[in-house]
Protein 1
Amino acid sequence: MRRHPEYAYELLSPVEFLRLALDIPYCHHEKWDGSGYPRGLRGESIPLAARIFAVADVWDALRSDRPYRKGWEEEKVRDHIREQSGIHFDPRVVEVFLSLGD
Ligand SMILES: [Fe+2]
């Protein structure tokens, strides 16, 4: 599971028209505080597209029903994303993301 950003990079990098978008699959599990993977990038060294996608990806994962749990209520997901601002997520991305639902 932790290898999927690298697998995505290997699979997609030969595709010329996807090259500019590779930051997203490759870097979407990096975390603002440097505790993510695969490279342990920190803060603004994580490409912006991946920082934005990380918030949307977690939003989608937590809101969705899974075989092992029900999707979370919207307010619970908003609270989680807010709590992870500056830890998992870029605080400016969180601020804009949460403002979209107001
Ligand atoms: Fe992922």
Protein 2
Amino acid sequence: MRGRALVGLLVAASTACGEAAADPEPGALSADAVRYLEDPAAGPAALEAALVNLDNGYARDRRAHYRVGDWLDLPEWRPRVYPARPGETRPVGAPLAAPETDPPRETDAFRALGEALFFDYPVQFVPGLSVALADPARFGLGVTDGRVDGLIWVDAPGGPALALTCAACHSRPTTAGRVEGLGNPDFDLARVVGSAWPPGMADVTADGRDDPMSFPDLRAVRFQHTLNRAATLRNGLLPLAARAETQIIASLGGVARPPRTYALALAVYLFELSETLPAPATTGRGRAVFDAACAHCHAGDGLAGEPVPIDRIGADPYLAESPERRTGYWQVPSLRGVADRERLFAGGEVEGLDALLDPGRAWPGHRFGLVLDAADRAALLTFLRSI
Ligand code: HEC
Ligand code: HEC
């Protein structure tokens, strides 16, 4: 399932000229993707097949509700939204144009829709967000073209309200512009909700425990073998779409759902973000050190791997054993794009690549690459900075 190329796959549905199963059309959505749009049962079936452990809260909840007669019959959530600008106390000016619900079945059209939704589709109401709108920089949020990335005004039944979009946590502001998909290490949601999490982390589970995780780098999501740090789901375009669909339903409290085109568009957009990452070198000393010390876990083009038992890593088992997402395993994340990540690991324990390979570092987890001589360490760092 994983890494399936979207471009150039055949649209199995009948085409405009009436031929079934015509020649592959470059840029058309894959047959799987079309099935997800047309058959309401395709998303639930893909999610069911992708679940790694049926005995956790995530699996139980999805299996109970993500089906016809329940979540799939909810009304579509397409609220009127307004851009959120620094200092506003209510929406000003015209609403944004409503995103299309039936774009052409082409990768490019879905990618563009997904990008718009990633920045503008409200996924979570958080009381008190107006403090972040008043002073976005203090909360680690960027401003692009006068608008605060990651916040959106929603015409909600009780009056205008601010909501988070995917971009609040998964787009990083930099002086050279935002990096779409990269975890935002500065977004300080804790300061809004009054919790003790550090910036760049949040507890996104409903397991009743305070187990925040750092915001992952979604540019690499196409390369992941499994999704979520606890390796909750096997990866693929349909599982990713179903993950987004059910995530939005759950965060809206189970009262509305996104149009299926929106969930698929988000997944297509995220898969296409991999195009923004450089291809790793296949030769050279740093690559050779990596192959010897790291590649049995971080393997292949994506430098990602099959999940490993959590005690192999020595990471905080509290995080991996969340009753909601528990699988007993830990995702071996893709390292593509790793040089841009400020805080490494699920718990954000290590700051940057130099600290990762510092034998004197305090964090006791992930003890790999710590016994290299100086030249090998330097070569490995150069390789890691180039991927
Ligand atoms: C409040 C911050 C926040 C928002 C908003 C948010 N996420 Fe996340 N996201 C997280 C955190 C934290 C994790 C890590 C969870 C884990 O690993 O269990 C995560 C994990 C993910 C993953 C798994 C990545 C991987 O490599 O395993 C995907 C995919 C994802 N988010 C997509 C989205 C999309 C799409 C949206 C918008 C619909 C969104 N997120 C909104 C915080 C957020
Ligand atoms: C036994 C398997 C294994 C080996 C060997 C291994 N890793 Fe990892 N690596 C993991 C796992 C699992 C994680 C996720 C742990 C977590 O998030 O707490 C990880 C996470 C990372 C991260 C953090 C990525 C992020 O986005 O947070 C980096 C960087 C990394 N590894 C680099 C390396 C390097 C460099 C080597 C070789 C010197 C290496 N790893 C060897 C399994 C491994």
